[in-house]
Amino acid sequence: MNEHANGHYSASSYRTPDGAPSDIVIFTITSSERAGAKKALPTRRLEVLLIKRQKWPFEGLWALPGGFTKETETVEECARRELEEETGVSDVHLEYFNVYSKPGRDPRGWMLSHAFVALVRESFLAGRRTSDEAADVALMPVEDAVGLELAFDHRSILEDALERIRVRMLTTTIAKEFLPEEFTLSELYQVIRAVIPSFEERNFIRKVTSTQSRKGILEEARDASGEPKTSNRYSQRPAQLYRFTDYSPMLSIYG
Amino acid sequence: MNEHANGHYSASSYRTPDGAPSDIVIFTITSSERAGAKKALPTRRLEVLLIKRQKWPFEGLWALPGGFTKETETVEECARRELEEETGVSDVHLEYFNVYSKPGRDPRGWMLSHAFVALVRESFLAGRRTSDEAADVALMPVEDAVGLELAFDHRSILEDALERIRVRMLTTTIAKEFLPEEFTLSELYQVIRAVIPSFEERNFIRKVTSTQSRKGILEEARDASGEPKTSNRYSQRPAQLYRFTDYSPMLSIYG
DNA sequence: GAAATAGTGTCTATGAGACAATATAGC
DNA sequence: GCTATATTGTCTCATAGACACTATTTC
Asked: Is this entry keyworded Repeat (chains A, B) (predicted)?
């Protein structure tokens, strides 16, 4: 154990890491009906999944789900495995974003933590929230989570993850990870606002449908006979359904 | 050595990593005078620094500079230390971009490599290229480097690094890392083109100077008396000098 | 005046941004 | 008809993109 694979390597007497965990910031967007109105846009909120630690260190504190990488897998495979063990979901958007290696960050030893963001649709986690271990696993609003004392340096990790998805929400099409295949533009707008409360575009519909440079990221959903598909789930007047294309524009600050 | 810091940790019988190297993709842009013309724009080329390995494994192959992280430092501190040892430069732009952890990627054992991009001005490396170890250290055009067989998975790392700086060249102001404090718009344009050969903007000057949304990333350089500063280093007619402001716009695919 | 790069004029089409106005369907 | 959301009309101004033209200095 912990011997080097062979002796050609002069660093074999060096101290080596005690582990390389992957930690996963699992985000979801919950919808809740607004009281009163019958057909009204639901309130959407960005939430993060945390686990209450059962043992030393940081026993009793909330922490990000995660686990140790094995020598037979990549850190990404580890994250995907832990994600499935923890939430039962697979095939979700998982994105590596940083490594945390500050000496002393883990009292158990020299641990290099690899942090991922996972984006999960609310429906995927539906069963989870009512499971027996509900007390140890919580889905909580991000504003609440960043206000808590978390285990290890998980608060920094969470803040970095948040920053990360805010940037990527605006520069990539990850909004699709929180939406059904076909959605209305109000839904899209709400998803963006759930992640970035300050996002405000008065003419949102105008822009995403008519802008030449951005045209191409969205297309109208049509049924078998070619008629535009609409939905009146959230409105009296049916709204046009859209879907993301697989085109992703290249942004530039220079033009 | 390699014992866990304490016994509370149930994973203490697991295999642990054999090392966590940092590898650094050091980019620079070289300028060379074009033959013939007296005052002409130099040719700028993106180059990468590679080191010829002297020992097993991959002896004789070119590799990215790097080295092992110590338990008393972060992987970033390791990268910065290695960068200085290797090139003598400090205070340069250094950016972490990915971890490489595929089992078997390093025949010496279970190594998790943390990859960085460093952006260095040509002048910083000037002394280095004529040093004694010139045969072991090379600054070579990136097109050449990606065509070579490199040690470990360094070719993948290099390709990823290239993709990374191409995106960041267009979405952030890292172009400043390759330019003097004050520069002409032709120089800026050339730097962008050295990194992204396909970048073409006919009205480059127009855009960066007159666009409201982008206005703010650049400002005209002025001398003590408030007069605009110009340079005729590369042209007969003097060109206005600019500098980057510290404003960095937030791009969005939605408007 | 030729060379070499810097910068402007001009024209057209399109987009941004603001808001008012109208449309649709359920209640 | 009221409500709540969806969508279009309209107007103004700024920008994109193309390309010809003028400017400035050195040789």
From this structure: no
